Amino acid sequence: MILLSFDTEEFDVPREHGVSYTLEEGMEVSREGTNRILDVLRAHDVRATFFCTANFAEHAPDVMRRIMAEGHEVACHGCDHWEPRATDVEQSKRRVEQATGLTIHGYRQPRMFAVSDSELERMGYAYNSSLNPAFIPGRYMHLREPRTWFMKGKVMQIPASVTPWVRFPLFWLSLHNLPQWLYHLMVRRVLSHDGYFTTYFHPWEFYELNEHRELRMPYIIRHNSGKRMAQRLDRLIAMLKARGQEFITYYEFVKRNTH
User: Fold this and answer.
1) Whole-prediction pTM value?
2) Which residues of the chain carry a pLDDT beneath 70?
């Protein structure tokens, strides 16, 4: 089983590098990137989960309608990606539900920061996907956490996939920068070991970042961005479909493993 996900947020990475960037500018980038992602998914007839900030849901209603019309799941990704707050667990659910008319079942904290498990349970979330249990110094160093899904109270925790033993991360930066044959090899290793694979990307990766050096994006982010990233996602999906893998949403995964 394949659980593809996209952190569908307003593009704010330039601000991390000292570039002034408005919400409107960030939304323009993310709208374009999200539509490029949706084109790839539609071409393969596969579904994914879009973790949306309240900002994105409210400022891109046309893109949100397309996400829903094409059968994808909408989950929460906080309110303002730049300034996560403890109240986001509650406020993002209410705002995204109001913007979409859906009942939201899942949450992912911006930048995979820690989030209150008790608050997630109080708000009725079925799952939380805010953990990258990788061997990377910093916020992704979670060697004591399980690699695969587990329960905390009533909320399923769905970590991003990492390789067995070494815990090499197979998230967005890996697909950007590794030879694609090597990335595919490690994905197949995870599938063989765990029985499922889950990863995440961002809309702004599918924007032509190399054409905008004024944004001061590091090379590891700019590398293979835009159309090249869409091609890499296309080849990844094609490889997995050729091996008979099923693509499901996160909430479908929860229901299959808890009922």
Assistant:
1) 0.96
2) 138-142
